[in-house]
Specification:
Length: 160
Amino acid sequence: MPRVLLVAYGNPLRSDDGVAWHAADLLSHKFPESEVEILCLHQLGPELAETVRHFELVLFLDASRLDDAENIRPGDVRATEISAKSGGTGERAHFSHVYSPPMILDLASELYRSSPKSFVVTVAGESFDHGDCLSPSVTVALPKFVERVDQLVREFLSTP
């Protein structure tokens, strides 16, 4: 069984919201299937907690919206370590199909006593309009996004 799970989520028909799917395609050729599994999803759901419990490292890949308070510009790449109990099930969703990465980790912890090392890796999107093409700034950032994910995976796999 692979040690690492990459969860690429977003809508590939909403421009930059599909950047994680593009990254997943590029990353699929970088790692042996025996070490890394890649899932492409439109959204995160509670059933993902059962899958997550089987892995040592989980990376959630997504597009993020611009945040003026943090001076984020289109194309900025961020990686943030997260864990169970960092804002998950305490922020119950109004609809059962709206889950965040911390909520998935909280479910995995509560239901299966599993707490994989986890990160959210994002690239700030510019356009979330209908379309299957990335904006220019996200297209330029895609290699950096892939490189950051690659770095996190390789660092993890190189440790005993």
